[in-house]
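User: structure tokens for this one?
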Amino acid sequence: MTADDLLIVDDLMLLLMDDDGASVQGAGTLHYTLAGALLTELALLGRVVTDDTRIVNGPRVDPAGAGPLPDPLLQSAYDTVAGKTQRVQPLLLALGGDLWRVVGARLVERGLLRREERRVLGVFRSTRWPADDERHEAQLRVRIRRVLEDGDEPDARTAAVIGLLYASGSLPSLRPPLPWSTQTVTRAQQLQRGEWGTAAVGTAVTRTAATIAASSAAAAISVSIATR
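Assistant:
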């Protein structure tokens, strides 16, 4: 397996993980962000749709399309959607769980992270996930900068990554930092709303992906406020 096999959720994990592997940005609501990335990718593939209701738990998510999916993680997420009709927030909880560990292991398998276990004071086990090959993340950051700073039109994948980063509230706190100004905030907000320009994969698909990203953010924000 190579970096070419990466999903949106993998790209997000790489960006959110500090290079020393000791901490993750937005750790408290990471399960919402990563689960939202899986649902967003399914939306871009036309494999989930949402209704237009705006209640506390978000819109209903229904399966769409047919046939196997190209990645076992996507297939597992789709099977969860297809197994029981749910609204976004409980579905994010169902998908989130230990998703960060699963994604971390995928990135180790692909040679992008490495897993280091050590004991603190000889008793407490500590796990770090430092970068092992930074080339893919560096290329991803270049694409993000071109979209946010230079106004380049993004492909659907880059637009989704930026939208989810902004929705999660993690974009300004990433290390090393990505651009953060009035211009880039406005651009990120547009991408979160699904305003992806002519490169968008389709109005309905884009709207579904943006709805899921926004719902993921709303769920994360509500949990963050409740736990303060």
